Structures are given as structure tokens and as C-alpha cells.
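ping. complex inputs:
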Amino acid sequence: MTKTFRMDEAQPRLLDETGQGIVGAPLDRPEGPKKVSGRAAYAADGLPENAAHGVLVRATIAQGRVTKIDESSVSDVSGLLGVFHGPKMTRNPAQGMAGEAPVQPGDEVHYHGQPIALVVAESFEAARDAAQRLAVSYDADTDVITDPSRSETHEQDDPETAGDFEAAFAASEVTLDRTYTTPPHAAAAMEPHAAVAEWEGDAVTLRGALQMLRFNKKELADSLGIDPDKVRILSPYIGGGFGSKLGIGPEAVAAALAARELGRPVRVVMTRQTVFDSVLRRTETSQRLRLGADKDGTLRALSHDDRVSNIRDEGFAEPVSQASQFLYGAEGLSFTQTLARICRTPAGSVRAPGEAVGMLALEQAMDELAEELGMCPVELRLKNLPDKNPMTDQPFSATRLADCLREGAEQFGWGERKPMGERREGDWYVGMGMASAARSNMLIKSAARVRLTGDGAVVETDMTDIGTGSYAILGQITAEMLGLPIAQVEVRLGDTSFPGASGSGGSFGASSAGSATFLAAKAIRETLAERMGCSLSELTLQNGIARGGNREVPLSQLVDGELVEEASVESGSTADSHFSAGFGAHFAEVAVHAYTGEVRVRRMLGVMAMGRILNEKTARSQALGGMIWGIGSALTEKLTHDPRTGHLATRDLANYHVPAHADVPGDLKVVFLEERDDMANPIQTKGIGELGISGAGAAILNAVRNACGARVYDMPATPDRVITAMDAAGF
Amino acid sequence: MREFDYTRAETLSGAADQLGEDASVIAGGTNLLDLMKIQVMTPSRLVDITRIDGLSDICEDGEGLRIGALVTNSELAADPRVRDGWPLLSRAILAGASAQIRNKATTGGNLLQRTRCPYFYDTAMPCNKRNPGEGCSAKQGDGRMLAIFGTSEHCLAAHPSDMAVALAALKAEVEIRSAEGDARRIPIGELHKLPGDRPDIETVLAPDEIITAVYLPAPQADTKQVYKKVRDRASYAFALVSVGVAVAMDDDRIASVSCAIGGVAPKPWTDPELEKALVGQAPSDEVFGQAADKALTQARCQSDTEFKKPLLRRTLIAALREATGLAVSAPGVETARIPA
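pong. complex structure:
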């Protein structure tokens, strides 16, 4: 029976006492060699015999109705098997943790690029040919609003407040009122969205590229109108997700519908253009920051108002001011969000929704305030760190932000920073900038099963690995708890027939699935202690040997057959009594060409405290990746829509500019400060993946300002915007 | 991708014989195959010229070089003679695309690559280059990468090549052969046509003509050559603006200058007035800026491309500063490196 554990109080730090010494070690990912040698089977690999190929057809109007899909227009395509459309086709991927079907718009079109049909043929080439040539007639609406600044349907929340912002702002000796904008972003995962559906009777098996199987199973069942028990999803390897594969996607639903109809397996792989057109984007934002402070740098007022957008009938609104609500304390705090309804590719979670863009604005505003005050930006932040969440009065579960700021300044050589514009090398200005990092932390209900056989263990959970290291860390936790060499532990993931976990998202996967694995292994330890005839505290497990009660017994003698335990974890009252978040500090040095406005990041340092580190190597890779996304959001990334039709102009990786190697400095460094978060979960960890991006871009943009005077209010800071801002600053 | 016939040509005349309105030459295919996949180009026949002898060599031609049309971008950029005598060409090639693409892309194909205007690539949007008479979606559309020189009301697309800009600054010539075997040589500046009312016709090549070689004239002694490309990220992005210059100094004055501009026109853009304004002058930011202003009198921008005027002015100044020795480059910030 599954043991469910609620996180109601701090737990003993068992992983600090166990003897194997593998948790935290910088272990290589066990699946790494398979991935780099092409032997890891991703969703579209390992095609069943007799599989047919489907390609999605996009709508080419921004809003209206499909009046006719003329199948005769492609009847000359050899090997054509069918054109599928109808009421079960989904408009876009489900939002994360939706657990139900995404919008199924029937013949309605809600955005340019919406999948409206699936063409299936014997070959991919034939299907793509037909998908491109299929004649579709529309009844198109006129005066469609695709620009959020022109939207007439604004939904505005009541301000979230603490204290009296207006009064505190009015009473402040120094005030700042700035508006920053960020463009829409794409997750831009390397693996395009793909699915292979195969029916056996009334049950379907789907190989997919999906991050949250426990929810995806329900979403697929609901989309198809079948019982969730009739759905099995396999997603053992995922070529990057970044939020774009949280929910069931149109490729999966369409593949299942066509496979049922045709009575044979159907594979649907989105083309890169379709990924851009129809997978959830990050909203563009417009953010107004108002800060008030006394001359000594004490923050008195902080307000962060934002406007985001989404398509009709989507509940998601980017939580832009999430970090602004707890990072700094002030007498008066106020946060308002406006959601504009527009006809564009729907918006959803992309790489640290909220903090990734909100902290670009907040941490630039803090830099501007420091400048107004004539204060060191590090000192300004140190002066305003609260000891509890200023909006909720919850104490922080664990925070070492002050240490991160001080340690980062020391290690980076912050003391060498020159006044604005005073460091020049040839035709390049050079400057330094910094920013705080913060990302709220969560525990999501998760289950896992651990089997201990005599000389090895197996972990089974429907947790996924989106390239982050789930296989490694779940193996390490199990090896640590059961005293096994890591090679003796096998981790099986990505199968809905295993116990349901959180999935990968919101940086909560390691903590949530890791805690469930830990608890299952802990239950096995209890049985082992009984069999050893010793108390749990006396039991030591190391390298396959159990010790306790003056006995030393190999596990293989202690376990006859196998010991199986399943455990489940969910958040409890510590989530109310305490506020948990990861914190850090980013430092950046940039060179800006004095004439052309090109920005080159020369070095970056992130100092972070994010609870217990389960694997020093995969954690570091995550943090580095996050910082690289920070470079993208500061300098290069922007989805561009046609201002008239809302169609996407940047539909491939040549035109949507994620940072290239040459954009990333060789001197990119992460330092972890030791920390345990006792209130977060039973293994004292925090989320890692998204903290790296949070604030990183602002450190770069603050360095640009220090280098050459340019303060760019509309991200990304491309050369044209930098030269305009340099001109404005008199450089 | 539509179905098509594929022919592997053994000889030039054999290849030219098979060309016609509905056929396309394929060499590296780095642009053509992408365009075929999205059905922007739908040739019914591909004529593969990569097995034809005599098109894959770089050989000395007097004091200059003859570069076969099939020489890959990687080979050309790495050729010691090119790096020594025409470093501008090496630098421009390495500033473009990615290593994988440069390994496949050819000299002739690079010149004939199509624009990257997003509307040309989206068959749901009207485009006069794809379908003459259909209209130009780029007008008042998203236009960051569009041209500001040489455009017409029918087309605003820019030519994306870096290599072609260097060849224009180096005053290269293009050798062309027809099905009849006639060969002709034209200055690189005459290869591409401005769009006028037929933006679908991009070069002076007749349907049965093939580019067979590019000729580099003898390098001028003591020129300093610079290729400066400004783009939205440090690598693998097309130029917002690029400048190729070769400058010779006579004591402290500019003796001669040859300059071409990329990312701003349907062809590598040259302007004699720009060069005239520089020759005989002592180098200074002011002189460079005045020369840039001469070229910019021809610019026609829409709101999205307005930035190209100040950016081009500044990039010209920056490139000329490097070419005349006014600028000291900072170590660690230049990303382009010529492989050893």
C-alpha cells in the first residue's frame, strides 16, 4: 500500500547521516552515453511497423471559421491515407497540470497558425506535401486584434497590496517610475513536439514528448472522450521542454484520433515552423515599476504593475511580479496585473514563468534606484532584505541571499567596478552589473516505487527527464538510502503505468519525485532494521552491507526475492507556515562596441543557495543553462508577429535567436552555497532549473548601463536599441 | 516537398542542356532544400552539378585567383592564398552561417541564395518574389531584416550573403557559361538585379546559364581589409548591416578605398560617392561620417528599418577606423577567428 506523507513539519536530515556518500556527488548522467550516441529512443524514434505519418495543417487567418476543407485538392498525393479534422482536434497544448482537454474549437479559428487538420500518408514527405497544399476556405473575421496594446478586452485583477503604497511612495525622498517591455519568447526546445499513437482495442498507447505524464494521461483521455485507464503514455527521454511540453499537445491528440480511425499506428512530428506557430509562447509584457526610498537607501514603496496577454479561454497569465512580491521589504507594496485578450499563439509557461521577465524589470529598476541614490547596487539590496515574506508575513524557510550577494561581489571582483563609461578598451566600453536572483519553490504531490532485490534496486515512477538529470538524482537518492553502489540502481521513468509523480516543471521535479523516492527507500530501511533486529537509528547501509545490533549482513542475505515499497508525498502545513524560495546573486561583465552597439558578455558569475544539492554536476549544468537563457532574454530573444495579421515572422531557429556559442562567455561560473531547507520537503532541497535565469538578464543589462550609459527599456538590447540609448545618454 | 526528377550531370554542357524554366541546379543545397521543404520553390527537376570536373579548384590566375563555383565556403575561407591576399573574403565567409552549412555551401550557390525576408518564406503571405503581382507583405509589415537601398514598391527584400559583400569590395568577377558553351565574365556588381517590378528575377543569368567560377583580381599591395558585421547575436544570424572595406594609405591619407555594404540592399551595395568622399582625406570619425552620409542619401526606410541609417553610419565609421588604424581592437571581444 502506498504510504502518503504530508509535509507538516521539519524532517531529520537523514541524507546527511547515511553512509554511501553518493548524494550530492557530481555524477555523470547514467543515460548520457545513450543520448550522445543516438541510442536513446525519443518519442519519434522506434517507429512501429506499419506506422503512418501525419503532418498538421495550420490556419492561415487570425480569427474566423473554417468553412471548407477540400480533400480533393490533395487527392493526387500518392499514399494519402486521410485528412482528419473535427470537434476533437485541440487548439493548443494544455497548460501545465490542467488534467483536462485543452480548448477544442471545432471549426473556429482563434489564431494564425492554429492546427486545424491532420493529413496522414504512407510517408512523411507525402503528408507534408499534402498538408501544405490542402485547400481550406475560411470565413475570416475583420478587425482582428492581434496587438496587446490595442486589445479592448482587458481583464484586470484587484491590486495585491501590503501597507499603503501611494502614501509611502509620496513620502519617499527619492522615487523612480519606469516602464520596461519584454517581447514574446519561445521555449525553443531542440526536440520538436512528437507523438506516436497505437491502439489495441479501446486502449491507446502514446509515445510522446511530454513533461507531466500524470496530468497528460487525463488530458489525452478527456480530449479523446475515453477513460483515463485506457491511456498509457511513454515518455522516457525528452529533448528539452522548458515548459513547452507540460500539457498534452495537438500532435498527440491528432495522432491518437487518426490512429483510431485508420486502425494503425500514426506518428506526428511537428515541423519546426509548427512548433513556433502552435506551441504555447511566453507572453510579451509591459511592466511599470515604481520605487520609493529614503536617501539612506531604505526602500519605502514598491509597486510592480504589468500587462500580459493570452488568447481567449486560456486561464494562464504570466505571474510577472512573483519575485517582486517577496524579494525586498517596503512599507507600501502594490501589484496589479492586466490581461489583454488577443488573437495570437496562446501563452503559457516558458522557462521560469514570472521571474524570467519580471526580474528583468525589477532588478533594472533597483539598479536605477541605486544610481539615483549614489549607492552601490549590492549595498542597496543588502539594506533591503526582509526576514519574512513582506506580503504574507511568512518567515523564509531558508535564505542565504545576503551571503550570495557578499560572496559574489568578493569572487567577481566587484570592487574593481568603475563609474559609468570610464572603462574603455579600444573601441569597446567595458562595464559590470549585478542583480539578485529569486525563484519561489514548491512541493508537488508525487509517488514512486522502490524495489530492493538482494544486490540492487529499481526505482519506478512516471517522473520525466527533460534533460535535467532525473535519472541521475533518483538513482543517487536510492543508492544513498539503501547503501548501494550507484551502478546497482536502475531508474525507470516516463511510463504512466508507474506511480504518478509531479513531472518536470516549475523546478519542482527533483524535490517532489526525489522526496517520494526517498520515502519509499526509507520504508525499505525500516523493514531492513526489523530484519536486522536493530533500531532504525542503529542501522547503517553501505556498499550492499547492512550493519546494526552488532551484526553485519549482506543485503543479499537479508532480502529474499525483493522488498517493494511505494510512497507518496504532498505539501502540508509547512507550505503555510513558511515561504520557500531559492535565492542567488548574478554578476556580469560586458563589452559594448562604442560605435555599433554590439554587446558581448565577457564573464558571468552566479552565486546561489538552493537547498541540498543532489548532484553537483547536473545542478551546475542547470544553473549554467539558466544563465545562458538570461543572456537570451537580455540581448537576443524575440518572437516577432506581423503587426497586421498576427502571423509569426520568426518561425525557425535561424530567426528566433537563442544565444549561440559565441554569445556565451567561456568564463561562466556558478558557485553553490551550502544550504538545507528543512521546511521545503523531507530531503531539504529546493528547485534549481529556473533560478539560473531569474535576474541573470538584468545583471547583463545593468552592466551595459555601467559600460556605456545605455539603459534599454525595451528588451532585447539589440545593437539598434543600444546605440539609440547611448545617444540618449550622451555617449 | 513535391516530387521531382533528379539528374546528376557529368559535364557542364550536359547540365546546361537539362536546365530550363522549371529546373534548378543543386550544389550544396543548403538554401534550396529548405525552400523546397516549405514549397517556396517547387522545381520539377534538380540538376546536380557536384560531380562535374573542374569546378572545385582554386587556382592562380596571373596574380589573382580563379575560384571554381563548387569550392565550398569552408575551403575558400581556409585557403592560405585567400587568407593572405584577400583576408576580407575569409572573414566575411566565416561571419556567415555555421560551420556545418559552410562545409556544404558552395561559392556559386552562396551568390545565388535567396533572401531571408520572412514573407518570402511563408506561403500564406502574399509575396511578389514568389508570385509576381501578388503584392508585398513586407511593406508595413515586420521588417527588421529588410533592405533600405535599391528597393522598389514591389519588393523590399535584402540579399543575405556575407561572401558576396566581400567579393564586391574586392571587385571580383563572375564567370558564367550557357548551354551553348559560351562563357562570359561580368563584374560581381552586375550579377544581381534590383527588383523593379519583377522581384522574382534576381540575377542576369539566363535559365540555361550556370556560374562556373569567381575571379579575384590581384590584391592591391598594402591594403588593410576589414569585414564588420553587426547582427542580433554574435554568430549564426544574418547581418543587420555589414561593411567590407579595403583601404590603402599614403602616409597619413587614404590613397584608395573600396567598400561594399551588406544587409541593406537586394545586392551587395556599393556607392562611388562614398569612396570618392574618402580618397585623399586624413582619416577621422568626422570624415568617415560625412562619407557615410553621402551613401545614406539614397536610403529609403520604413519604420522598422529606420534604425539601419544610424547603424550603417556607425558601422562604416567603425570599419574604417579599423582599416585606417584609428581603432585598436580589444582582445577577447572579437569573435571571428580565422582557423589555422
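Chain B touches chain A through 47 residues (CB under 8 Å).
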